Amino acid sequence: MNRWIKSILILVFGLFCVASSQVFAGELVIKGSTTVLPIAQMAAETFMAENPDVKISLSGGGSGNGIKAIIDGTAQIGNASRFIKQKEVSLAVTKGVYPVPFRIALDAIVPVVNPKNSVTDLTTAQLKDIYLGKIKDWKDVGGTPGKIVVISRDSSSGTFGVWQELVMLEDRVVPSALTVPSNGGIVQAVANTPGAIGYVGLGYLNKEIKAIKVNGVTGTEETTLNGSFPISRGLFMFTQGWPEGETMDFINYIFSKKGQELVRKAGSIPVFGF
Question: What does pTM read for this prediction?
Answer without folding.
Answer: 0.85
